[in-house]
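in:
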């Protein structure tokens, strides 16, 4: 009788997500594609909320979805996510578990402990701009370090400044969210008259409010400036923007977003960012000169006077916009520098290589 060959069954990668927000998807979507290219099985355990369901169709088809029904009661919600994690972890060998966000990490880590076959799996955590994590991690952060860090845990962050929060963890990897290649390949043709573009894929009432104010202030000049808001916006902000003469364009996917960026003269980010500023990275990849509010996430992307301008006041923003409108050579120089900087950091191939190396899949 021939002896059966002992063949190692490769484990799968499981992502645990609370809400599949735009920021989380900007990392998870490309991550699922990278894991699929490696040939490894993968699954995503997540809360099923209608406002984020449009992302599901964009996840790679190889990703098995374990959708947890949305609950009004937070205790029931996280209990249901815990149970879904336990079920998924018990279904087969695990190569790695990746928690996206603070609560998914706290809940999912308990599931790792509860399932004997999952206890030795490498665990990864990405904060995705969690407001509960301060510069010293804080009380919840210390709990997270105890729960996740002690279980062979590593951090995968997509902002350089986040790395400092995990200096005492076993390891920390910087894997910045990528920008789709079509933004780099975009053929831009500026609009006939000055056009300022801004917006994003998530609702930002404060950003819409400031843009409306700037539009009103600049409408009184002789520059004939137009403003476009690209992306989702709440109804109150839509009315405010329209009243200020700002055109609002809902977009569905990267191609439509890139097409709306193409005629812009200047990209504007008038408020501080929390988390990775993907829309700014996309505007840079498209070759737009950028005028942004001076904050940590923006400083990580923009070099003052080289790839854009960092501003601390509304007056500075107006002055920088006016300077760029008056000087086509300056717009071209800053736009080329912005695109080169984005290409060096946010290419899809670099992302996949770094992530798979972190997962030990390359």
């Amino acid at each position: 009788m021939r002896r059966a060959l002992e063949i190692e069954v490769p484990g799968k990668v499981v992502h645990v997500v609370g809400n599949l927000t735009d920021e989380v998807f900007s990392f998870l979507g490309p991550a699922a594609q990278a894991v699929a290219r490696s040939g490894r099985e993968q699954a995503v355990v997540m809360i099923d909320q209608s406002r984020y369901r449009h992302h599901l169709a964009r996840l790679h088809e190889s990703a098995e979805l374990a959708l947890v029904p949305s609950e009004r009661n937070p205790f029931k919600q996280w209990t249901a996510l815990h149970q879904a994690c336990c079920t998924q972890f018990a279904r087969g060998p695990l190569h790695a578990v990746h928690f996206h966000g603070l609560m998914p990490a706290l809940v999912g880590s308990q599931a790792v402990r509860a399932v004997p076959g999952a206890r030795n799996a490498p665990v990864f955590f990405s904060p995705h701009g969690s407001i509960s994590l301060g510069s010293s991690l804080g009380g919840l952060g210390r709990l997270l370090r105890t729960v996740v860090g002690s279980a062979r845990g590593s951090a995968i962050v997509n902002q350089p400044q986040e790395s400092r929060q995990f200096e005492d963890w076993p390891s920390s990897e910087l894997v910045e969210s990528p920008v789709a290649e079509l933004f780099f390949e975009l053929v831009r043709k500026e609009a006939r008259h000055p056009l300022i573009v801004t917006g994003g894929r998530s609702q930002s009432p404060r950003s819409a409010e400031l843009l409306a104010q700037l539009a009103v202030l600049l409408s009184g000049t002789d520059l004939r400036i137009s403003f476009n808001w690209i992306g989702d916006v709440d109804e109150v902000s839509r009315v405010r923007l329209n009243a200020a003469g700002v055109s609002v364009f809902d977009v569905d996917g990267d191609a439509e977003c890139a097409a709306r960026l193409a005629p812009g003269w200047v990209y504007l980010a008038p408020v501080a960012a929390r988390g990775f500023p993907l829309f700014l990275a996309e505007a840079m990849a498209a070759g737009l000169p950028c005028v942004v509010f001076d904050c940590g996430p923006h400083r990580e992307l923009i070099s003052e006077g080289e790839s854009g301008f960092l501003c601390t006041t509304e007056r500075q923003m107006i002055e920088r916009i006016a300077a760029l409108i008056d000087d086509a050579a300056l717009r071209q120089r800053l736009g080329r520098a912005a695109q080169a900087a984005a290409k060096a950091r946010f290419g899809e191939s670099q992302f996949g290589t770094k992530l798979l190396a972190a997962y030990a899949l390359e």
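note: The first strand starts at residue 12 and ends at 17.
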